[in-house]
Amino acid sequence: GENVEQHPSTLSVQEGDSAVIKCTYSDSASNYFPWYKQELGKRPQLIIDIRSNVGEKKDQRIAVTLNKTAKHFSLHITETQPEDSAVYFCAATFNDYKLSFGAGTTVTVRA
Amino acid sequence: NAGVTQTPKFQVLKTGQSMTLQCAQDMNHNSMYWYRQDPGMGLRLIYYSASEGTTDKGEVPNGYNVSRLNKREFSLRLESAAPSQTSVYFCASSSSNEQFFGPGTRLTVL
Which residues contact B8 (CB under 8 A, 6 or more apart)? Predict the structure, then answer.
């Protein structure tokens, strides 16, 4: 199956600074890469996704980049705010619609 | 439109007891999933159902069984609970790639 590695496991940033989370995947057939945000005690919720035919996608303060050749993708959060504090998971598809998730990154935004 | 719902929200079992976690979705999705979430390990797929009447093993299926009762409902059963099954369990559904998650069930096995 797919193996997704995510770094760093924890990230502390000053409010207003940028945060970057990186993931690598192993299956070259993967074609869909979502990012989920999970607040404490809540369910994971999709914040942005990218398909393999696109190199970059942006939605307000968040953006995702994909390098298919290197098999890695990244989440960028600009102008971080306290409400961005959460655990973020990357994922990649394998065998149709199954997702393999990274281990998660705990982001803390310091006021 | 409730999305994905799960019951119960919390459960404590003794080793060897059995129980069924219930999941239902009202989005007319074909695919449904069961995950477990443990600290530092992300979400791991237990079982998967591509459509009504079909189920398939995921990454960590041992100790679990599932039933896709109809298009809406997908249940997860622990026949003989073990402490290693202490976890938070999430159900999800999808019609294409995007998966929608339920609120989770926090299970403790003593």
Answer: B21, B105
